[in-house]
Design a protein that fits this description.
Structural class: mainly alpha
Bound molecules: zinc ion
Radius of gyration: 20 Å
Number of strands: 6
């Protein structure tokens, strides 16, 4: 007998303390059969990403596990004035369509922005929205959200710098630049991952080298000459 792919979980709303049910994909089905170079994953049956956002049907507070557990008075007021007042009660129970998944991410993004959540979390929500458009081959919207994602990841970098755990962040900034056709910028970030002595993450160093190579091939195909800056960066490859 096959197990139902979704199971229900109870969540307590951080704003109104209402307890509601949200669906999750069973762990055994969470294996991606393909992952893009910026970690967008593809699944055969159900996409677990569709169920990451939990939306409180009573007040509209939409969050993920990575949101803070408690809201300050200011956050509560900001959420009330920006989202709750306009909330039309609705639930996102059971199976979610692509459209519903997109709505839940858009809601989570609005909530995260209203309560000034961590930049890294906002960047990740934007990145997920870009992936949703990628699944649909909506290139224009995907690029638009990749651009927003890039801006947020750069802000995270400006706040945190090159820490031991930021190899993935730097790699992503490079890779998103590459995907947006900003080759010069992409090389700068890949080069940081490869050359910065503080970075020990072998997988990210390898990925940066690979995508740097992919970028060169892409430029050659498009008959673009590498800039002097790129050539200089390549000296240490
Ligand atoms: Zn609530």
């Amino acid at each position: 007998m096959a197990l139902e792919p979704l199971y229900k979980m109870k969540v307590k709303c951080a704003y109104c303390e209402n307890v509601f049910e949200t669906s999750r994909v069973r762990h055994s089905l969470k294996k991606a059969y393909k992952t893009d170079t910026d970690f967008c994953a593809y699944y055969k049956t159900m996409n677990p990403d569709y169920y990451v956002v939990r939306v409180c049907p009573a007040c509209g507070f939409a969050s993920t596990e990575n949101f803070g557990d408690k809201l300050s008075d200011k956050q509560r007021k900001d959420f009330e004035s920006q989202i709750k007042e306009r909330w039309v009660p609705r639930a996102y129970e059971g199976e979610r369509s692509w459209e519903q998944a997109l709505e839940t991410y858009q809601l989570a993004l609005l909530c995260a922005q209203a309560v000034s959540e961590k930049k890294r979390l906002i960047a990740s929500l934007l990145h997920h929205i870009a992936w949703l458009y990628r699944y649909r081959n909506d290139h224009e919207q995907e690029q638009r959200f990749m651009q927003y994602t890039l801006q947020e990841y750069i802000r995270v970098y400006e706040l945190e710098g090159v820490g031991a755990n930021n190899a993935r962040l730097l790699y992503l900034i490079g890779e998103i630049n590459r995907r947006l056709g900003n080759y010069n910028e992409a090389v700068k970030w890949f080069s940081r991952v490869v050359h910065d002595k503080k970075i020990m993450d072998g997988a990210m160093i390898r990925a940066s080298r690979e995508q740097w190579q992919a970028l060169r091939e892409e430029m050659a195909e498009r008959k673009l000459e590498p800039t002097e800056e790129m050539k200089a960066a390549e000296q240490g490859m």
